[in-house]
Design a protein that fits this description.
single chain; alpha+beta; 6-stranded mixed sheet; 4-stranded antiparallel sheet; 11 helices
């Protein structure tokens, strides 16, 4: 659905007294932002177990002007802030989940302005930023042209396979109204994600009859079929122009060093910014598996049984892109530049993959401050106020430049 909004140019936006009031609120509430980053970080949110953090975030959104905030069918927190026009809807999102398994110590350690904890920058700071944005809009009495839908979503990381945002766009209550999408993810403000790296992930299982390594010698061995597949994968030709990649990432199986295995597996990650190239290497992987199975069955004895293989799709993130001349990109780039950030456009795999693949303009933008060591136990962010607030204000300007600010 195409909706003509009434955006406001970034220079005019920054000069508007209501923007100044919202920015002033962010400054005055910075300590609260830090407190909420710590509070949310210390609520574990491992893959597929985001319920506790979602419940806490929901209770924090309600007094921020969202009495009707709720959990949707898949576990996302959704909160609608209505605009004047009644048409068009811009999503502001951050993800609830982290990559860390259940039982990980998520206690926050503070050293000066640095905060250390798993998941604190990816993406707990993003969640706290959504709360700060919502309160800043209310504090400045800002009315927007378009509706704003605040979303704290599940399933962004790993095998979550973007299930929260996938649900929002395919089955969610607002799926037919969304006309633009921001995801706030990581502190980094110098890179604006406008291209979605698509990925397909497979758990490939090879099975055979097994047997004693000495007495059953010559029997077909699924490990050899796996090895041929992985070797073939390593020799696969890919395009550097479309940044197409592959990896045999996790391998396992077998029961004993003196037994021909009955089952082995390999997990494979395929990626590309080109949907066509992603489909091509996907087809090639399946061909490699089929060829390796046939070759091993031809090589060894199948008297006790033959080799079989099954490639189970465990992840499917679509590729896509947002045009550089679209309003959401130009407004975001201008906002970042206005606050002194050198903007670089890049490709990544984020929640924005889903809307981009559907033709809905989308970007991933940072939340300010600095950070590092994401996806490790040593993850950290720096909440030094000047840099932190500069990023928050740039993010505020980016989405207000799209939704329009009513006088």
């Amino acid at each position: 659905m195409k909706v003509d909004l009434m955006p406001i140019a970034v220079p005019a936006l920054l000069a508007h007294p209501k923007f100044a009031a919202a920015a002033a609120y962010l400054e005055g509430a910075h300590d609260r932002l830090i407190e909420e980053i710590i509070q949310l970080t210390e609520i574990p949110a491992p893959p597929f177990k985001e319920e506790r953090r979602a419940a806490a975030f929901l209770e924090m959104m309600r007094p921020a002007g969202f009495a009707d905030a709720k959990l949707d069918a898949i576990g996302n927190v959704v909160a609608l802030r209505k605009g004047r026009s009644g048409g068009g809807m811009i999503v502001l999102s951050a993800h609830l989940d982290t990559v860390f398994p259940e039982g990980t110590d998520v206690s926050v350690r503070r050293e000066g302005t640095k905060l250390f904890a798993p998941g604190i920058g990816d993406d707990t700071r993003g969640l706290a930023a959504l709360l700060a944005f919502a309160r800043a809009l209310d504090a400045a009495a800002i009315e927007t042209e378009a509706d704003l839908l605040f979303v704290a979503d599940v399933g962004e990381e790993g095998r979550g396979d973007l299930r929260g945002i996938r649900h929002l766009f395919t089955e969610g209550e607002f799926r037919d109204r969304i006309t633009g999408f921001f995801t706030f993810d990581s502190p980094d403000m110098d890179e604006l994600v406008v291209t979605a790296v698509g990925s397909r992930r497979y758990h490939v299982v090879f099975r055979g009859p097994g047997g004693h390594s000495f007495s059953a010698f010559g029997t077909v061995n699924p490990a050899y079929a796996l090895a041929e597949t992985v070797l073939g994968l390593s020799r696969m030709s890919v395009s550097s122009e479309t940044r197409t990649t592959f990896s045999a990432s996790v391998l396992g199986g077998g029961t004993s060093i003196n037994a021909i295995p009955e089952e082995v597996f390999v997990d494979v990650d395929l990626r590309s910014i080109s949907p066509e190239d992603l489909a091509r290497i996907d087809t090639e992987l399946h061909r490699l598996v089929d060829t390796a199975v046939a070759n091993e069955n031809a090589r060894g004895s199948t008297e006790s049984g033959a080799i079989t293989a099954e490639a189970v799709l465990i992840g499917d993130r679509p590729a896509g892109a947002t045009p550089r001349d679209s309003l959401i990109v130009t407004a975001s780039a201008e906002a970042l530049a206005a606050f002194g950030f050198e903007v670089g456009f890049r490709a990544s795999s984020t929640d924005a993959n889903i809307p981009m693949s559907l033709g809905v303009p989308a970007v991933m933008i940072g939340t300010g401050g600095k950070g590092g060591r994401a996806h490790t136990l040593a993850e950290w962010i720096d909440v030094e106020p000047e840099t932190s607030l500069r990023g928050l204000k740039a993010g505020l300007a980016a989405f207000l430049g799209v939704v329009g600010l009513c006088d």
